[in-house]
Amino acid sequence: MRATASAITVLAAWAALVCSAAAAHELDPALVPLAEKETAPLLETLRALTAFDSGTGQAPGLEGVAAYIENFARAIGGDVQRVAPANDVAGTNLLITFKGTGKRSVLLIAHMDTVYTAGTAAARPFRINGNRAIAPGIADDKSGIAVFLHAMNLLKARGFGDYERVTMLFTTDEERGSAGSRDLIRSQARAHDAVLSGEPTGPDEGVVLGTSGVGQLNVRVQAGPDARAIEELADVILRSVDAQREVPETRMNWTVMRAEDPAGLGRLSNTAYDFATLTFRVKGRASHAGVSPELGVNAVVETADIVRRVSAASARMPQVRLHWRIAGGGVVSNIIPERAQAVAELAVPKNQDMRPVVERLAEAGARGLLSGVEITAESAEGLPEKSAAQGQAFASADQRVPDAQAYASLVRQARARIGQQKFSASAITVQDGLFFPPFNATAQGRELAQLAREINARLGGTLTLYPRTYGGTDAAWAGQSGQPVVESMGLPGGNYHSSQEEFILIDRIPRRLALVAEMIRAIAQRP
Predict the structure, then answer these.
(1) 8 Å CB contact between 258 and 392
(2) Which uninterrupted H or E stretch holds 65?
(3) Are β-strands 273-283 and 339-349 bridged in parallel, bridged antiparallel, or unpaired?
(4) Which strand (E) or helix (H) includes residue 161?
(5) 225 and 207 co-located in one domain
(6) pLDDT for 15 beyond 60
């Protein structure tokens, strides 16, 4: 698109304005000492927020988080409005408004939901280990909530109100694509002069200029009396697992598998065969499927390969019959799955010893495809219990892309591999879609990020401007407003969406608090 002369003039004026603002903005020398004193209260806020299980859809925990925030915000002068999410999404979105006497408005966005299952908060409660505060969801994104609340508390203590308004928008469903809040985010962003997004940064202080679009690819293989649906699904995963290598700056990771095929060996004669059940349990390592899949060990991929290699081993024993009854693992689409299992039933002719057959198949399954995986094999006499299930074979992959064109290329690569059927009788259906658009900072947003970098340097730190991360965030919805957005204003930390200990770095809290407060001051005071 060709820029008009007026648009170029506006952008040039904005760039000059931000550059001059960075040089002219006078830091409040009292903010850093106050931020240092605010560190302990902020940690108590994080302790309170992480005491709730607030995974997407967990209404009681989301209500607990919302109630805590509401009480805190009212105590520091915020006007709180509860907004029901669209599309029957659980929880309540919060709009918190602070009115001032100035002309500029700032929107602060963060999300209350996490990726953790019910019971995680009690099992892994808040604790401090050296410079780390540790708890599920403490960085992503309860750190953003805490930073924004306490930054406004600092500005209140300094009597600063030179903004027209500062609005906080805390939502309930970012981890699942914000179907219940995206319209609210867009409308609020349009109504403000600038947006600060509270997603965490990594252990190094930084802000993000671009995020990835997030897609999901779902595959179903129809189960039936003569189908080998679980074997086909396992092969689908293995033959498409490297599709992203063909498309630069993309990622695709299989994260969920649910397969059950009750049509098994029970129809065989008990007088001709002995039966056994062989169960493989897989322990990998969870990590964020978009941001840091390399830190995980994918239990679903390993399980798919167990199905492949055990099936191959049984095929070399012609008289042995093997049928896969169950294979599955993973919890949500954006986590590299930590655990999975596969259950096979065996039939061995009565004139043949069962033990060496089980040992050979268990050995084949236990060899391991992925480094760091743990596999256990258990055997039992007889067939598994009968299931009333009709049979299903389903798998889902998380996809990350920089733009729509890259997504189309990734889908083509994946579909081409999925279409290479292992069994001619297999019926495979594929669904895909991009449910989180990428975020790419505008020229104005880049200038605001540069302003943050310069302010942070004057506060004694080094702030990295990351061109892009593989996360998908609400900055994408805010950015569709056309207003400038600065991403990753939450706390430095790590191990998001992980079975390892999610953490924030305590010694970075004062500077990040002061940075957010100074950014609000700088935006509010520009002409």
Answers:
(1) yes
(2) helix 59-75
(3) antiparallel
(4) none
(5) no
(6) no
Residue corresponding to tokens 């840091």: 292
Domain that holds residue 322: 214-435
Buried b (16+ CB within 10 A) or exposed e, 214-244: bbbbebbbebeeebbbbbbbbbbbbbbbebb
pLDDT tens per residue across span 91-140: 999 999 999 999 999 999 999 999 999 999 999 999 999 999 999 999 99
Alpha carbons 403 and 392: distance in angstroms, whole number: 33
Cβ pair 256, 331 in contact under 8 A: yes
The tens digit of pLDDT for each residue in 446-488 reads 999 999 999 999 999 999 999 999 999 999 999 999 999 999 9
Question: How is the chain split among helix, strand and coil, in percent rounded to 5?
Answer: 35, 25, 35
Q: Residues 390-408, buried b or exposed e (16+ Cβ, 10 A)? A: ebbbbbbbbbbbbbeebbe
Give the span between the Cα atoms of 346 and 353, in whole angstroms.
12
Dihedral sign from CA coordinates of 122, 124, 130, 133: negative
Residue 69 structure tokens? 């925030």
Residue 48: strand, helix, or coil: helix
pLDDT for the residue numbered 132: 98
313 & 379 share domain: yes
Within 10 angstroms of residue 271's Cβ, the number of other Cβ atoms is 6
pLDDT at residue 7 greater than cutoff 60: no
Whether residues 340 and 391 share a domain: the answer is yes
Question: Tokens for 523?
Answer: 């935006």
* 342 three-state secondary structure: strand
List, for residues 157-187, the tens digit of each pLDDT value: 999 999 999 999 999 999 999 999 999 999 9
Q: Are 336 and 297 in contact (CB under 8 A)?
A: yes
DSSP string, 211-271: E-EEEEEEEEE---TT--HHHHHHHHHHHHTTGGGGSTT-EEEEEEEEEE----GGGS-TT
Query: 462 and 430, same structural domain?
Result: no
Of 520 and 224, which is predicted with more confidence? 520
Neighbouring CB atoms inside 10 A of 374's CB total: 15
Burial class (CB in 10 A: 0-12, 13-18, 19+), 470: buried
Contact indicator for 90, 512 with CB cutoff of 8 Å: no
Tell me the C-alpha distance between 128 and 498, whole Å.
18
Tally of domains in the chain? 2
**Which DSSP letter does residue 293 get?**
G
CA 487 → CA 138, 262, 424, 479, 525, distances in Å?
A: 17, 48, 48, 10, 21
Question: In this structure, are 82 and 160 located in the same domain?
Answer: yes
